[in-house]
Amino acid sequence: MVKSNIEEYIVDLEDLCKMFRLPENIVIEHTEVSEGNLFQDKFVYHEAEQRTEYNFSFTLNDEFTALHKKSYRKRMVKNFLYSILSKKLNKNLPWGSLTGVRPTKFARELIAYGEMKEHLVSEMLQKDYFVSPEKAHLVAMILKNQKGIIRNDNLVDLYINIPVCPSRCLYCSFISSEYSMVKDKLESYIDAMIKELDAVKDIMKERVYLVRNVYIGGGTPSVLSAEQLDRLLSQINFPITEFTVECGRPDTITREKLQVLKKHKVSRISINPQTFCEATLKRIGRKHKVEDVLNAYGMALEEDFIVNMDIIAGLPGERFATFKKTITTLLELSPHNITVHTLSVKNGAQLKDNTQLLSEKDITKMIDYSQKTLLENGYKPYYLYRQKNQLCGLENVGYFRDEYLCAFNIDSMEETNTIIGIGAGAISKRVYNLEKKITRESNAKFIEDYIARIDEIIDKKKIFFK
Prior knowledge:
With 466 residues, this protein is of the alpha/beta class.
């Protein structure tokens, strides 16, 4: 349990304690007293009958902006708690005191604040935030590899959500419906999305927004029929740089659907095997076979798509040798992009109470091997993000070969551009680059609610972008 007299610290301090797997019988009490720019903090570590007190202080620079001061304070407090827990538990975390989703965005902010030199990113993340050499170097590589970042408040990305899948995977915690449960509602759902899209076009005209990238995700958008995809995509007629559609489940991909996507100038798709082990696919609730992945991939190349493939390290029942075989198969296929996920065990997933999870040593070995092997074979990391409850506090990393970066993934992870979300569960993020702030507006989460409340959702969106 964590207690603090500063409410804004609580979530970050709790997250740090969770990553250390702090025993339930230990209580951490934090208090902070300030006088001008001087802050004096105290942590009290309660374990059984023992009570240990730790004190530290820090001073803010007068030249800091209000936002910088807020960020700096929280970082100093987290750093000190990390030092206490690391010594008490004799344990280091791969990402040190960093608890956020976007380590690369964090590094960019430090560079912008003048606290970090770009050529010293790796060194300073290790020294100031206890990040491991391997992860610090990974951040530095990604910052170097990211290209095409444009900070322009009039350039926006469009995200369309299709929260429907053929079946529910054991590890999934997304708000996504099984196709058999909602197939009779999909025509009405497309009607509602087209209505929201028409309203968004009016907003963009009024705001003088230009769409840079379009991304249709989910769920599995390719569960829609070829006719339904055609009807939806016919409404997307912007002169865009990049157009991505997730077709994650290979058993939903047909030649006809791919030709519909190509007709509407979709440039990128994803085909996500997650593993090339048949037994694992069955265990995690995916209905397709390895052969389906290979067939879908062959069709996608014939239709000239840029293809991303996702895999997951740490799937239940898998061992290192199985994961290694998956990496070998990926390299033989040579997709344009590969995303390596670390399994995240979330409350909403059926996997939550699964007893087949691997040890920290096995998971770390998988992730380290994937990075080393992909780099050796010409792939380069270009974005990463972390999720709560990821095994070992690790990360998800996107790799590219040649020049096939996905611009939407960079925009999304680095939060450099406004994203307009359409569909159930979609989140719009309005980025104010000059003011250095982001505001968010969420649509109704479930398809039925979204359809019923579409007029209300459109009204809220008009207000949000006014």
